[in-house]
Specification:
heterodimer, A: eight-stranded mixed sheet, 23% strand, globular, B: mainly alpha, 2 domains, 13 helices, ATP-binding (chain A)
């Protein structure tokens, strides 16, 4: 049994001008200890998927359907109280903006200690002590002094380390990292990724990594799902996806990665881009959601939405034209 | 923190000096001549002139201000023109009821309005929110004396839960004291509560949008913890600001409330003094109110730094 199985997840939002299908029928699973990356451009529903797993979507206006099975239990069936017992304990989350994700008026120690007090019943004092341990584990110097400080006294990278300390304090089985490095300097990004990877190995957690940065995916993920307009377009192992992308959208994303030294070689100095915009998710679209922007699109793409098909072993894509490898019989 | 306190206290002293100048000018700005009032209807102009002279009213403005201010610095507020007793003594006799009324009003208002504003914000757009906010509009719009008479009629005359009028000193028992002040405090506090509830709601709405609230949810914190620990502390600065500024409202309202409920406090003393053009008493009371107001707002400024570690002056 997989650690997390998301089945046909639909997260829709009621808005004054129609229903916004932010996530529309997404299915995937994560095994213990695995790192799964969810990639796609802004507004493709990757963050909403992450928030849906922890049921952090406000309802209304949001509405979730489908199944989110975590260790066999469907999270959508749990009471609010049961759900609170899972948040920060079995499943925890780190966010994109370390500047805004920490409470400015509570001390670092208090914020790290809070999960420990909530889920492990530690006293204020024990929690504070464990917070010091956590700070040194995430590589913050002088943890005994830092524990009494406030977020505004720390740099961006330090704050993200604090967020990681909060998320990992209770040894979660699943860590959801929503663009954990996007707001950081490149040098700090690498440090934070290393830290996440090391700690993950230490406590044996699985990671759901939300990112638009394929460089980060290549660095840390085992498998990758490409999302577009609230749907899963392609899923494969990381080496397979980079070597052999099936979906034209994935090709487009990979083509848009700048490569060091590419301009020196002359000819292909210009990065490829994907023309057009993400479709309006409030409109019912019959055909492939990507067809308007796809260089391969034909009439069938505009009329019939392609289903997810296994195009190679362990590699699925939703495209009429993705070549299917012959699987040796 | 100490340097800040020192700076703010110096500023307060300057503010108080300016206030004193204004208070003193009242005597010149207000219509009516105290000498004429004291002399009565039958007095000749010579009588009035003699009284003016004996009160020192015929001497130049700044000399009199200087003398007056110097005496105030020594704690001497002068004597009532009317009764001849020292103003500080008159104020001292009336201080207890007014302070009791104010303290209870602030306590009631904060205890009711802040949670109301917090819940209204957390349920923004629902019927709970609408109920609280309609009540707040009601609290704003109904005049103090109407609320006072209605409350007195229902809870004192009909239900007989509280005395209709009058004041029992704290020394005569905590419960009678409390009972005598419940209706006046609620009456006086209506506008104040409405104000605090609205500001709390607005401030909380903004804070609840913040990402650290989402972080708190993702940690598994319970909703009440999120509202009252994670959010309220962040929303507190505007709330306590309005609590402080609103004290001015209470000072004005106390005059009416004390009349409605026949409480022998400073409000009544002020009204009586104004009727009689008893300037030393008016000056003393206004000076005291200003001092209390400035002092409370000074304390609130200092409290900002305790509530929000980012605030440094």
């Amino acid at each position: 049994m997989a650690l997390l199985e998301v089945e046909d997840l639909q997260t829709h939002f009621r808005t004054p001008d129609g229903i916004n299908r932010s996530v529309d029928g997404v299915t995937f699973s994560i095994e213990s200890g695995q790192t799964l990356a969810l990639v796609g451009e802004s507004g493709c529903g990757k963050s909403v998927t992450a928030m849906s797993i922890l049921r952090l979507i406000p309802e209304p206006p949001g509405k979730m359907a489908g199944k989110i099975r975590f260790m066999g239990r469907n999270l959508l069936d749990l009471s609010d109280k049961e759900m609170r017992g899972i948040r920060g304990n079995d499943i925890s989350m780190i966010f994109q903006e370390p500047m805004n994700s920490l409470n400015p008026v509570l001390t670092i120690g208090r914020q790290i200690g809070e999960t420990l007090r909530l889920h492990q019943g530690l006293s204020q004092k024990e929690a504070e002590q464990r917070a010091v341990d956590m700070l040194s584990r995430v590589g913050i110097p002088e943890p005994t002094r830092r524990v009494g400080e406030y977020p505004h006294q720390l740099s961006g990278g330090m704050r993200q380390r604090v967020m990681i300390a909060i998320a990992l304090a209770c040894n979660p089985k699943l860590l959801i990292a929503d663009e954990p490095t996007t707001a950081l300097d490149v040098t700090i990004q690498a440090q934070i990724l290393d830290l996440v990877r090391d700690l993950k190995t230490d406590i044996g957690a699985a990671i759901l990594l939300i990112t638009h940065d394929l460089g980060v995916v290549a660095e840390v993920a085992d498998r990758v799902i490409v999302m577009y307009a609230g749907r899963k377009m392609e899923e494969a192992s990381v080496p397979e996806l980079f070597a052999n992308p099936k979906h034209p959208y994935t090709e487009g994303l990979l083509g848009a990665i700048p490569r060091l030294g590419s301009s020196l070689r002359g000819a292909t100095a210009r990065l490829s881009e994907i023309p057009g915009m993400v479709p309006n998710l409030k409109k019912q679209i019959d055909g492939c959601l990507f067809s308007e922007r796809c260089y391969k699109a034909t009439d069938i793409c505009r009329k019939i939405a392609p289903g997810l098909e296994e195009k190679a072993p362990g590699h699925v894509a939703a495209c009429h034209y993705a070549s299917k490898e012959m699987v040796p019989a | 923190m100490l340097a800040l306190a020192a700076r703010r206290i110096i500023a307060t002293v300057i503010v108080m000096a300016v206030v004193a100048l204004f208070v003193f000018s009242l005597l010149y700005l207000a219509p009516g001549d105290p000498a004429a009032v004291i002399a009565g209807d039958q007095a000749t102009p010579a009588d009035i002139a003699r009284i003016r002279q004996s009160l020192g009213l015929d001497r130049p403005f700044f000399i009199r201000f200087g003398e007056w201010f110097w005496r105030i610095l020594q704690g001497d507020l002068g004597r009532s023109i009317f009764t001849g007793s020292p103003v500080s003594e008159l104020i001292g006799q009336r201080l207890g009821p007014t302070i009791s009324l104010m303290v209870l009003t602030v306590a009631f208002a904060v205890a009711i309005a802040v949670p109301a504003g917090v819940f209204a914000a957390s349920k923004a757009g629902t019927w709970v929110d609408n109920c609280f906010m309609s009540l707040a509009v009601f609290g704003f719009s109904v005049p103090v004396f109407v609320i006072g008479y209605v409350l007195a009629y229902v809870f004192a005359l009909q239900l007989e839960w509280f005395p209709v009028q009058g004041y029992t000193a704290l020394a005569d028992g905590v419960w009678p004291w409390f009972q005598s002040l419940v209706l006046p405090s609620i009456t006086l506090g209506c506008v104040y509560m409405a104000l605090i509830a609205r500001i709390t709601r607005a401030s909380m709405l903004e804070v609840l949008q913040q990402e650290y609230i989402r972080t708190a949810r993702s940690k598994g914190a319970a909703e009440l913890d999120i509202l009252f620990v994670h959010a309220l502390k962040n929303a507190a600065v505007p709330i306590i600001t309005i609590v402080g500024i609103g004290i001015a409202l209470l000072i004005g309202g106390a005059v009416v409330t004390e009349s409605v409920f026949a409480i022998p406090g400073l409000g009544r003393l002020t009204v009586d003094a104004i009727m009689r053009r008893d300037y030393p008493v008016i000056q003393g009371v206004v000076l005291l109110f200003s001092f209390v107001y400035v002092l409370i707002n000074l304390l609130i400024d200092l409290a900002y730094t305790l509530l929000d570690p980012r605030i440094r002056y």
